[in-house]
């Protein structure tokens, strides 16, 4: 979303001539029910591939822009006919994509943090099946009692030799 910069007098003159309400977030014309000329819509859908390269600040900024644009479109939809329904759909899906990337990156950071810790949060542990989760761990499986160790040392597997004639 791109906001054009105008001086205060130009904006006030515009609103006086068009009888619009001045809003801090967006400028909406209440008489003709269209977005003012000062507001420019962003173009196209957001591609998930492009989002992965961005950092968290850029993603949150883009999310805020998409949300304000969605608000604009909803105002337009109420004011006029449903011509903007497809655009609203695209913006909602774009918001979902941005949120998905933000959450995935956050989870990846948490996985790195808990990588070598003894305990990890339940939602970061592997899901698997109930039976697999209750199995003994490899360390627990390989443990041997002291008595068993002594028995194997003192009484090893016997080797038999067969004499052939």
From TrEMBL:
GO CC aspect terms: cytosolic large ribosomal subunit; preribosome
Gene Ontology biological process terms in this record: maturation of LSU-rRNA from tricistronic rRNA transcript (SSU-rRNA, 5.8S rRNA, LSU-rRNA); translation
- Give the keywords, sorted: Ribonucleoprotein, Ribosomal protein
Kindly list the GO molecular function terms attached to this UniProt entry.
Answer: mRNA binding; structural constituent of ribosome
Query: What CDD domains does the entry give?
Result: Ribosomal_L29_HIP
Annotated family: Belongs to the universal ribosomal protein uL29 family.
Official protein name in the record: 60S ribosomal protein L35
């Amino acid at each position: 979303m791109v906001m054009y910069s105008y001086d205060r007098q130009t904006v006030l003159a515009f609103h006086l001539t068009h009888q619009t309400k001045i809003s801090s977030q967006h400028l909406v014309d209440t008489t003709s029910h269209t977005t003012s000329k000062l507001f420019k819509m962003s173009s196209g859908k957001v591609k998930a591939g492009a989002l992965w390269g961005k950092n968290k600040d850029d993603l949150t900024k883009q999310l805020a822009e998409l949300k304000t644009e969605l608000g604009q479109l909803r105002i337009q939809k109420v004011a006029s006919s449903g011509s903007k329904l497809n655009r609203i759909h695209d913006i909602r899906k774009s918001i979902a994509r941005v949120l998905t990337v933000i959450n995935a990156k956050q989870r990846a950071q948490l996985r790195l943090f808990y990588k070598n810790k003894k305990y990890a949060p339940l939602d970061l542990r592997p899901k698997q099946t109930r039976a697999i989760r209750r199995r003994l761990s490899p360390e627990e499986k390989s443990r041997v009692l002291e008595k068993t160790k002594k028995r194997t040392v003192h009484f090893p597997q016997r080797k038999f030799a067969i004499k052939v004639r």
